[in-house]
Amino acid sequence: MIHPAVGLDGLSTIPYIVRPLDVVSPLMKNNAPEHMVITGLLHDVVEDEDYTLSDIRHEFGDEVATLVDGASEPEELINADRDIIRDYDRLGDGVWDIFNPSKDSVAWYSNVIG
């Protein structure tokens, strides 16, 4: 499990739990069904942790596992994110020179899809 002090992207100081809570807040405010709220909490678990869809299916059922699977990024994108973090560790802000858009544009896009 990701330690609460680890940031959302491994670089920031925002606690990991903030993102899932941001996702479930509007769901709960709008009386979403329980399986949707659970999915909101777990939507990044397969990508970020050592949990599989089988684990989620076992603990929360087929419906939640199917929804989490639909909300998960393909492995290629997950690896790309990890590559960027690794390159950032090596190059610092010079990593943004790899991209055609500016650092701010890449950050905006990452926040929108993240």
Descriptive tags:
114 residues, disordered N terminus, mainly alpha, Hypothetical protein af1432, 2 domains
The number of strands is 0
Low-confidence stretches: 1-6
Give the overall shape: elongated
Question: Oligomeric form of this entry?
Answer: single chain
Share of β-strand residues: under 5%
**What name goes with the CATH superfamily of the largest domain?**
Hypothetical protein af1432
Order of helices and strands: HHHHHHH
Radius of gyration: 16 Å
Indicate the mean pLDDT: 77
Write the layout of secondary structure elements.
Layout: H1 18-29, H2 34-42, H3 45-48, H4 53-60, H5 62-71, H6 75-91, H7 103-113
Summarize the entry for a quick read.
This protein has 114 residues and is mostly helical. The protein is 62% helix and 0% strand.
General description of the model:
The protein is mostly helical and 114 residues long. The chain folds into 2 domains: 1-72, Hypothetical protein af1432, CATH 1.10.3210.10; 73-114, no CATH class. 62% of the residues lie in helices and 0% in strands. It is built from 7 helices and no strands. The chain has helices spanning 18-29, 34-42, 45-48, 53-60, 62-71, 75-91, 103-113. The longest helix has 17 residues, at 75-91.
